[in-house]
Amino acid sequence: MNSTLRIILLFILILFLQVFILNNINFLGYINPYLYIAFVFYYPLKEKRFTILFLSFLLGLLVDFFSDSGGIHAFSLLTIAYLRVFFIKLYFKKVPVDYPFFKLKAEPFGKVFNYVVTLTLIHHFILFSFSNFSIQNFTDVLSNTLFSGIFTLILFFLSSYIFIKEE
Amino acid sequence: MQQIIYFFQKFKYFLFYLFLTILSFVFTFTNLNFHKSKFVNSANSITGGLYTQISNISEYLSLKEENKRLSEENTRLKNQIEKTTLRLSSDSIVIDSSKYHQKYTFTNAKIIKNDFTKAFNFLTINRGKKDGITKEMAVINSLGIIGITDNTSNSYARVQSILNKNSKINARLKGNTSYFGTLEWDGNKYTTVQLYDIPRQAPLKIGDTIETGGKSTIFPEGIPIGTISKLYKGTTANNKMDVKLFNDMSNLGYVKVVKSLDKKEIQSLEITKDE
To answer: How many domains are contained in chain B?
Structure first.
């Protein structure tokens, strides 16, 4: 019960943080961080994956509602939520038995860094490709992915360093 | 049969993922279609209400610019009135009330959400169906054009910004000539839009003013847009040029929604049956 409540709070907090603050930063005119993907990183790892797939789809769709972007946030967040387990297997060498005990904070920083950077770049690349929606300006997609990705990563690591308690 | 159940068992997550993906693709594609975007938009009562709360707080930060804009507009309108009254009194023109015909009405609105960094930008305004706002009405402010309404809920409306790759607006050169072209946006800078298809023989200079052409039923004639900032010399077919907007699209406050009273009549004429 406690953990369910925590996830609901995280969900609402991260949604409002994204749509009301982070979407309006426009650093250097166009660079925005997309910190809401932290929801996928912090959602507890479970054997059954229907809840995370559905919740990440919902979170993405709500961000879409606020930013009038159709379904692009929903799709990109859903994709990294789906791919998450493959990268956990790849980087952390976990088997399903280890899932209940998996905590991002307890893992070595190098592995966490690889894992977070990979998923962030995948998410941002999908997001900007779809928001651009044409082959033209493809360099813009790449530069947006890179700069927004760096911004998101800085914010993610800073906030996780500041707000998540060592246990 | 067992094979099918086994298949579903094995690929249940992938199938669920696929289902949600298709759903989000449907939302994405319908959102890009001007006439079909029904479901996912910020003009519903929840997002609209939240954006209103936020903009009530943040509007204090731009009061200075807003006041300046209002005062400039007032001065301009005062000057206009002064000119017309002068002409009326000296030339003794009789206004024939049977010929006088109002074409447009204006409704004021406040922008509660503004986007300008994406390729397909939308704004949200705090007026909706209950204020008589429907689809395809022009949104302008004192400096120039802003967009076209595309989706309305009861008390909010979504506006397709001119900074949207789908936006196409009829525009012309200001002055005596009536050369007109199409105003589009290439998705790069939010200060400049592109004007296409102005005839080659049109005399163009950098700094010329571009205004709406009045060839569509949405925008009134002669609303300012911007000035030509770059001409692309060469033999391209579409005769492209850059237009620097008068409006700072990153800093918008109060706007006016234009309702065209003749729209239905004009459209009923334009729709002809296939023979």
So the answer is: 3
Give the residue from chain B lying closest to A58, CA to CA.
B20
Mark yes or no for CB contact B165/A133 under 8 Å.
yes
Q: Count CB neighbours of B61 within 10 A.
A: 9
Q: Are residues B53 and B121 in the same domain?
A: yes
pLDDT of residue A76: 92
Q: What is the CATH number of the domain that holds B151?
A: 2.40.10.340
CA-to-CA separations, A107 to A3, A36, A110, A121, A166, in angstroms, rounded? 21, 21, 9, 21, 12
d(CA A69, CA B230): 31
User: Region B203-222: what's the mean pLDDT?
Assistant: 84
Domain around B7:
2-32
Q: Around Cβ A11, how many Cβ atoms within 10 Å?
A: 18
Smallest CA-to-CA distance from B216 within B179, B184, B168, B256 is with B168
- Give B 12-41 residues with CB within 8 A of chain A: 13-14, 16-17, 20-21, 23-32, 37, 40-41
Residue B165 to residue A74, Cβ atoms within 8 A = no
* Res B43 pLDDT > 70: yes
Q: What is the pLDDT of residues B83-140, one digit of tens each?
A: 777 666 655 666 655 556 778 888 889 888 888 888 888 889 988 889 888 888 899 9
Dump pLDDT digits (tens) for A30-62: 788 898 988 888 888 887 888 889 999 999 999
Q: Which residue of A19, A68, A130 is the best one to mutate when testing the B interface, meaning the one whose CB has the most B CBs within 10 A? A: A68
- Tell me the residue length of chain B: 275
Give contacts of A 89-148 with B, CB under 8 A.
130-134, 136-137, 140
Distance CA A52, CA A45 (A): 9
Q: Do A49 and B13 touch (CB under 8 A)?
A: yes
